[in-house]
Amino acid sequence: MKTKLILLVLFIGTCNLSFSQKDHFKDAEIAFYNEKFVTAIDSYKKAEVRTKSAQVKGEINFKIALCYAQMLDIAQAEVYLERAEKLKFKSKEPKLVLRMAEVLMQQGEYENAAELFQEYLKLIPDDKWTKTKLKSCEIQMTNPMLPDESRYIFQGEIQLNSDFYDYSSSFADKKQNTLLFASTRPGSTGDDLDDRTGQSFSDIWMTTRDNKGKWAEPVLLPEEINTPHNEGTPAMVEKEDRLYFTRCNVIPKENIGCSIYYSERKGNRWTIAEEISLKPEGADSLSCGHPTLNKNGDLMIFAADLPSGFGGKDLWITHYDKKEKSWKTPINLGPTINTIGDDVFPYLDEDNNLYYSSNGRIGLGGLDLYKALATEEEDVWEEPELLPAPLNSCRDDFGILLESENRGFLSSNRSGGKGMDDLYSFNLKQIKITSECYVLSKENGEPIPYANIVLTSSDQEIYEVTANENGYFKFDEVNKMKRYFDQEKNYSFVVSAPAHAEASSKISTIGLETSKKFYRGVCSFPYSQAY
């Protein structure tokens, strides 16, 4: 089927070319189809020099723009789309309008992008992809999600980022001081360059953090894991000391898709990585990658273009069969999670909540990060919600990793970074929430000494304390590492004292963006004052 398709593309694309032009155009089309974008761009440019036809030049510039878009060079993609438009290629290929709209959207130019999405919908009225993108632009035009309104501290990891692709991290120890990540920086295994990016092939690197938070110079993982091909998206299962990752082998004249591999750590050594069988028999050209596992290591979610999907790449789930010592046949996560676009880079937190990136939902631009809460039903998640800015931007945001509930890392190719993809850290701003509690008598308003106070959070974290001789207790710090009150939770007080009825009161920290002190007076009936 693939051979038939490429022959058809070549036949259509070369009808108006001379023999010398045909050779370069043919080489370019084959390279583009096989995702060798560097070679494709070079061949397209050679074909353009040898033609005087405005129509052919328009097509060539459009194809070059597609190459740059795949290489994540949005600025160059826009340059060549504009050239194709000036050559009036839009009349032959309406998707020029769509691609220009997408490029503008990924640069935050929502109003201009919306106009082009509307123009394209006049040509293709039922296009779901375009409708989703237009809706996203309209939301950002009327109610923009602005980073300066966020409560997150967000910064690039300057000690880790290079001028190249640095992305997709995973902790490799329980203390979360050893970090694995993928990079195309110099020093990788092998001397060849990846024809898809023009950079070194991606490898997995490791770094450690000292007690001052400084990262050491990253080191390359050994040849048991890294090869002259592409390795990336590491996912460490600490319980098993096992590393899962994606490998994309490059074999001349063969179309081999990516696969998921694993290696076990034994002391300071790693076993030779082995492929996990997840593809249907005879489907080597399909790709599986981006693994994430639960803390027990017996459930895996990954991205793939397996048959019966909903769009480009979907998220799939599989369970480990201990009896058979193999992974079961993957099951698609369904339309609640997957879209007509690409749904990729999944991550499971400690509670099996699912984070992932998608370009097929209402969002800000390219790939956006979403969170789907786990349900009580096995392998079922709630409707995903878009994460706030600055975790998301108008560019690609993916590869999230949580260090705690409110802090972690992600990858992005947003403007202002050091390289193509960069690693960023985020931390919910720590605001101080305290409460002064007074236990009073209903009868005369006098303090009740040494009353018992039980503070319970909405996630069932319980603290039991005793008021002083004046019926007073200040909820501030449990210890130097922990406060009584966290953000985004509900709390209840229950007070008991001899000869007095039990009483209660409530506090909510949901939505607080600045520090706050609550006052609570409680006994038979509570009263409250807050500022």
UniProtKB/TrEMBL annotation:
The cross-references to SUPFAM superfamilies, in alphabetical order and at most eight, read: Cna protein B-type domain, TPR-like
Q: What does the UniProt keyword field contain? A: TPR repeat
List the InterPro entries hit by this protein, alphabetically. TPR-like_helical_dom_sf (IPR011990), TPR_rpt (IPR019734)
Q: Which spans of this chain does UniProt mark as TPR repeats?
A: 94-127
The yes or no answer to whether the keyword Repressor is present is no
* Domain of life from the UniProt record: Bacteria
Protein name, please? Tetratricopeptide repeat protein
Q: Which organism is it from?
A: Parvicella tangerina
Classification of source organism: Bacteria, Pseudomonadati, Bacteroidota, Flavobacteriia, Flavobacteriales
